[in-house]
């Protein structure tokens, strides 16, 4: 039975149901009193109650150590004490509406009191013992003082006696007990009647299948009425139950229930539909807009949609569904030609006033939808998921839809949210989607799951979908694991070609066509002959309107009506061959001179993608590519003749990319043109060869059809055709990522190029320009694991820079899949031969093979009226396996367990729906599952400990086979591990890890569990994992929490004598404590921890590998149990599968400085000029360390590693950084709050040797006010100065070169002359020339001549200054300081030539830059500007005040830029932000390219 969790326990506005099911009785009665069906009956009642608004988690009993089975409730048998405890739980529940449902035996005793039998009410299998039962009066007295409204349902024999005998007593009791709420009692049988099992619940359930039910002339489920009244609802049940007088329910309201006690399941809070603007024509797609629909080319072939033969029954069903539902999804399905599109097109136009008024009386349907009641109608033919989302939003713009971004640039979830906001604001929406099966190859399932299902789940959106069961085209690798009908969460489905009335509808349609052709004289005999022929065609057309239509045309061409079906015997093969012969005859009529030509020229339309083919270029190229080798080559003249002959039908015209395109009028024609003998893969391969542009043309000038759809043809061709395209850099840059990305993701083989493309595809969507895409492609290749990939990538001339180096550690290869609905919350890797991986989302589980092929998934049911399932936050798999003692080859099915925070749901084998649900009133936080021999174990962790269930693997779980045990205690997490014939439970707690043997053993006393060793180290074990050694000798335990990951090696898991905390092999600091995993890899055991968005990995040797980036923080990881080292990660919208790290992978540059948090401030970057040969010093501040490397114009200097300049203990990060070249090396200064640390380094710092500070300076001032900026200067006199920003001044410390420990503060400061604090301090100097000191703070900028303070500083006081940069401009032999700043959304330049610097805005469009920096030589300086979030760096030629081309977005936010220049050009260091994992890239602007941009000889740039 399908089970659904109802969320919201403890929410007062929700109703709650307590179910008491007494279906087994103790004693020796051989089970004759047991009632096995009652549990299912109670489950049905809970489902109905949920539709009536009782959506809190039901209260159920458990007993005998057996978990609840059916949703109706408890374990078999309940005692009086247990029932009283359940009632107490019900009374304590905060809900204001409550139902107590009791089903079991009822007994009347001699004193005329009514008793409800409990488990032990028939001792020894004999007579009834009233003392052990519960009387109706007692039951009501237990509930009477509850202030909530209560309904008591007694579904038991003779239940009417509870009212007949004691109603007066009960009324008095209720008045005296003081409860403020209403109270009602329902007895499902009278005082002298037995209650048939489930009868009353069945009749109650049946009510809700009749949305239009009327009671005494009034509609019971009025959509405008929010609540159902108790009296009318009970009378409706009574009317149904009394039809044979065998069972007469009774209902009494002893105290009136509140009006909102029962919610109306058909009520919509937005029942009023949104009002479509009367003049709006954009609601309907181009493909559905025409009301003249051609049948085929030829005279009188076209017919008007108004002549559509009304399919009264089907149309009535659809209209009723639309009129009685406020949300949900109606699937209209059937084979090709079954009339799906005609029906939905007709339905859409029926909602328009003009079309509805144009229908003649004899063609007007009995049921019609409301006018303007469909708000968007879209055909999915040839469209991607993104294109359908974009079109939907476009169609709803007149209703006030506000896109979350540019149409098509947002995710499907964002589009759904935007549509839902319209429905909430404007009223309920009805959306129609036709041709789901005709969507772009590989997109139909995504449209169903990510768009249509999510729309239909909104309480104010109805969705109607027309589709075949499967997509028209499948990508290589076989059909998907699910059909489209499986993927759609349909509230109702209509399979048109299998409905009993379809044959009659087809007969009327054929008769209408033949009458239009002049057949069927107005005589009785003519009418009978016409009806007979039409009936015969209808019977033999297999329910397909298309076949019947063409067959009717064939009959009409004969010129006379057959005398009867007998004369149609010659056409009998049409009934079996169907469309093939009919279509061939039509083609022969269209081009009798050259019948082969029309088939050859039309064949490309059968292979076309998107909306159709443009002509003549693409169409003609495809026609000649796929024609038989014996046919001649076709010309434009042939194409024109065929198009003239077929225009209308079978070829129709549409629009795509702003031009006319042509397609087949019906997808069923395509198979006839291709032919059964042809291999579509070979045809698509030929198309790919024909459409690939010549070398001299290139992809930039390729036809739009080629750029959009060639990838689909390549994917359908199979083999390595698509991989070959992806190897072409220019193709991936110009191709449509909405089409290409899902195709590349679906490929089974993972390559460097495919991984690279998948990493940039999202960026390509937002940046359609080729230059931006090239920049992103090369910048991403720079950070890939394939070091040789960047040099072989094309470098187009528009990229005037070179990518040289990155601090980002190369990531291993990996692949990803779209997450289940709602995102991936948990993952599991199956330990089986197939090695399937599973991911859990909202109410569903999706499964893939490691090669990427998807398998059939699992789901929670979503019955109408119930709340949607919540996220499945835990997932575990126990693999299938051989059953000991069974026949050879016998394999028990796998078990998948998942929890949603309320219950544990269990699937067995390949079943799509759960077979069991474990609910015990707790809140599960983790779930585990293993198989050991012939037994399955499922465990769940909650605040009370570990709950463990087990049952035989070869049978489905039920209350007769499940046993459970609880390990109480403060348990944070648990792992289950089969070790030989034992099952080990590893429990993480406040002080470490404990081990238990939980194997089922009859010989063990008590609960049957045995405590083993422990690893208590005083740190909490928030997450735990266990791994057995491959050779069977013990294994490893891992625990994360308390700021560290610990791993222990145990030689024998089952040795209870081991000492605590022995065998530790790894201890590393980490803040991650929500997920840990252990796995075998190709080079040893790996340990992984989820730390924030990243996954950190270690080998047990202590080597940390490249952190794996993520987008979310879901606490779920799983290594490949086969030992490959691959890691599965739940990551929001993606399920990621990473390859193992390489054995020789270097460790992180600074593992101690990761995640320095807000105390560390933003990443800091400084680049000290040296020489191209000796290197320039790059300093990167990371938390409390400075990473130092040497770089030349070709990248990082070879043979040198990273030097870490450490600050020692502490928590505060660096806030300011400076570096300078000194005579005997380098000097680096870093500031933490108000303490400066200085390091002197040799010219080539030693590799990876921690360097301790040479000097530490106390800068004075308030400790809680950090120093914002410092800089270093080497004077010509051999003095080194440290300039420090301060309040209203700049302070200076000095030392002599080579005396690096002796620093002294200068007695004089540099007065800032304003009230502001100097936030920026910088020194700029020319080699062997003048130098200047710059300071900026507030709205003031000051510039001094150095070395002394000299005359009064230059003053600049820009209002609203946002960013500032300092530089030098030299003209001939004269040099002067220059300042750039942003104000008012504009960049300004101020040249300090006098006391009042001259200012002017920079040329080009206004740029609101948030960061500025000068670069290049002072003779021809560049100004760089950036906004952090844009990622783009703007360039200006300062000398000519001219805007230059931008350095395009590199995939991360720009935090800072530093530069040096030399003969090779200008070297830039581009620093990303914390959210980009503090990536820093080195980029070179080559001298020759820069000279061209600046229009100056290269020699002027040195």
Description:
InterPro entries: P-loop_NTPase, WD40/YVTN_repeat-like_dom_sf. With 1502 residues, this protein is an alpha+beta fold. The chain folds into 6 domains: 17-263, Rossmann fold, CATH 3.40.50; 286-496, Rossmann fold (3-Layer(aba) Sandwich); 503-583; 591-676, Arc Repressor Mutant, subunit A (Orthogonal Bundle), CATH 1.10.10; 679-808, no CATH class; 1204-1501, YVTN repeat-like/Quinoprotein amine dehydrogenase (Methylamine Dehydrogenase, Chain H), CATH 2.130.10. The strands form 22 sheets. It has a 5-stranded mixed β-sheet, with helices on both faces. α25 (680-691) packs antiparallel against α26 and α30 (752-766) packs across α31 (770-782). The chain is globular and about 115 Å long. Residues 1-11, 62-77, 297-301, 886-891 and 1150-1160 have low confidence and may be disordered.
The 3D shape can be described as: globular
> How many beta-strand segments?
80
Gap from first CA to last CA: 80 Å
Q: What's the pLDDT, averaged over the residues?
A: 82
Q: Rg, please?
A: 39 Å
Query: Major β-sheet, in short?
Result: 5 strands, mixed
Unreliable stretches covering 5 or more consecutive residues: 1-11, 62-77, 297-301, 886-891, 1150-1160
The helix-and-strand class reads alpha+beta
Which CATH architecture of the largest domain is right? 7 Propeller
> Helix count, per DSSP?
33
What is the CATH T-level topology of the largest domain? Methylamine Dehydrogenase, Chain H
Helix content: 10-25%
Strand order, biggest sheet?
1-2-6-7-11
Which homologous superfamily in CATH is the superfamily of the largest domain? YVTN repeat-like/Quinoprotein amine dehydrogenase
InterPro entries: P-loop_NTPase (IPR027417), WD40/YVTN_repeat-like_dom_sf (IPR015943)
Region (Disordered): 1101-1123, 1137-1168
